[in-house]
Amino acid sequence: MLALLVGTLAACGGGDSGESTAPMMVPPPPAAVASVTMTPDSADLALAGTLQLSAVARDAQGATLTGRSATWTSSEPTIATVSTAGLVTAVAAGRVQITVSVEGQTASALLRVRGVADTLRGDAAAAAAAAIPLRVARPRAEDYRTDHPELGKVTISINTVMVLLEPAATIGQLNALLRNVDAQVVGGVPGAAQAAGVLVLRLPTRTHAELAAAMTTLRQSPLIRAVVEDLELEGAVVSAESSDAESAAWRWGTVATTMADGNWGLKAMRVPQLWNLDDFIRRDGATTVTAVFDGGFPAHPDLRVASDITPSDVVTSEKGRRHGTHVAGTIAATYDNGLGVDGVNPFARLVVKGGAYVSTFLTGFAELLMSTPSAGRPRVVNISLNYNWGEKGVNTALQDSARTRAQRQGLMVEAMMASVQLTSGSLPLVIVSAGNDRNFFPAQDARFASPFTNAAIERGVKAIVVVEALQLTEGGTLSEAAFSNDGGHLSAPGVQIMSTLPVAGGAQPYGRLSGTSMATPHVAGLVGYLLALDPSFPAPTMTSNPMLDLLRATARPVAGASPGVDAFAAAIEMDRVRGNDRVLRALVDVDDGTIDGNMRVDLRTMQPVLGDAAGARDGRIDMRDFRRWRDHQLQAEGNDDAVLDGSSNHPKRDLNVDGRPNRTENVFPRTDFNGDGRLAFLDESPMTGIFGGARRTDLQVLQRLFDDPDYSRTICRNWSTRATCSSIPWPAWRCPGPPTCAPHCVVRKRRRPFASSTSRWPHRARW
């Protein structure tokens, strides 16, 4: 307007000059933009790299136009962004189109962002498997959907895959392949020697169909042995019970007869009998690092997590938090602390890892085993996670797509385990759940329930043990749980199992859950206990598993299910496997360290003597051990003729060493040597180990290792009925003439100390 005004005034002149003036020329309008070109029009960018684009506008004659405003846009800001000045920044691997617009005319550049920072590094001719970084995959929830065309409700990734390499693949070849598919490495397990490595890749795909096409490209490469989408894993739970105070009540009795008992599973497995070896482990055993891979682990007053080894990962899903806490409690809820429940293994040191996807657990497992020093490396790993096909409407007996994915992921687990063994020199014993798909469809095979079950059953990885679930029927008979998949190695209690739950509101932090998830930690806890008992017991390998052989050899047959684990029998059998009597000796070595073996009162001073109620562990089985068993036997019988010195609440009257002497002491007493859970002089029970399954009484078990030359005499075997005689340790009574025992054989005395000329210790008759 100003230029136009000046021109007009000039054209009019000054008015009085009388001179004529030529009119001022008005500039022509600017030339229209006829075309725009962008430089460069294509390029590859490294991840997090930048690229400056430039745009040139031209008119119809091809002349360059300057001073024109340009607008820049990105077709995929999640892959690359562009500034108002045309500076591109790579965000994620993939392809993106950058467009510039100048007065209605546009130009574009097609860019590809490569995961250069995440591709393999090293000599291009070197083996690619060994160059894979050891990295835990951290999936993003937005990359997973439940709209797969074949598997419907199953949570499957639209862009994340696991790839198993061929051992011959080189770094240069693999990098070229990754660039071709715009893959970003987000996790991995390096290979070793001839063990193939596993890569977790994120591809620039946005639908299941796009991912399927990209996977086809990968499968066609001779560098790739297998490729499969990442899937979600969930806890194998079929029901939840109340978590009120009543359900948290534990009922002690020597035999499990009803699942109403909060601790029925421990009793069915004979775990309380196993705990009679606790004092030995405290002196001569070791703690066992046990890893739990699950959905989450909030703090709980009855759980101690070894955070000094690895911090606990917490998943926000309430379902995952409940499941992980319950599983961890069955293994290692703090023993005998007056709270809630007791875990199977009082000597477990828990390491917990949370997650929800196969890629996380596979890479996390490898990272934990490969990067942890041997002293803190887990020897037992519990994985109570499955695909839960049945819950999502998938029948593996009919749907090949589900079986195929389980098989491919099982192949990945096999490769990962082989790499761990070659790298760290050993494998832990991995206990996994068989799955609950029979709750929805008949004839469901455990080998398709998870990548780990498939690796164990179909791929033959011996270090992995698959556990089915048992229930207790009326009358105390064990049977297979109706929901449990078939085909596992062992079975354990898994219905209405009481354990820890997250603390929430005013509810009791304990409750019941059912599933093969609940059976698995029973076995994991037992294995950890046995390894605490014998820390040098051979570790499993890819092709052998001495611990599984031990558990199966001592397990009890269960109709319709895999053999049911027997904790006490397994512990005693360790002697036969190891060729010694170490465990049996620990079981019957019960003297309290005093001169008497179970002294309550020093009869010379009449002062109380406490000794060690848990057992002094002198390694010798002699008269002192016999005296303690004898005193326990007499007290258990409640015979009025038997007078035991010491106060009624003296610790020596605490037969089951629970710190509370009372009227129910004959329930899993410390001197129960044959594992039947009680003291009864004539009762026999099958004994494994050096007994070879023969039935024995408590006294006969003690007799096997008795070694005291001062007392190796013929005495009454059945002193309660005075019926027979046998050459067993001589207590404070003697048969005057074998082979029969006269009624006067047992002379009951009351606190009459006497000394034997052949005895090296003074002792007392205490009946």
Automatic annotation (TrEMBL):
GO molecular function: serine-type endopeptidase activity
Domain BIG2, chain residue ranges per copy: 32-112
Coiled-coil positions: none
Keywords tagged on the record: Hydrolase, Protease, Serine protease
Composition skew (Basic and acidic residues), residue ranges: 651-663
A Pfam family hit: Big_2
Active site, renumbered: 294 (charge relay system), 323 (charge relay system), 517 (charge relay system)
Gene3D superfamilies listed in its UniProt record: 2.60.40.1080, Peptidase S8/S53 domain (3.40.50.200)
Any one GO biological process: proteolysis
Sequence segments annotated as region (Disordered): 637-670
Entry annotated with the keyword GTP-binding: no
UniProt similarity note: Belongs to the peptidase S8 family.
PANTHER family, A to Z: CEREVISIN-RELATED, PEPTIDASE S8
Protein name (Swiss-Prot/TrEMBL): BIG2 domain-containing protein
Organism whose genome encodes this protein: Gemmatimonas phototrophica
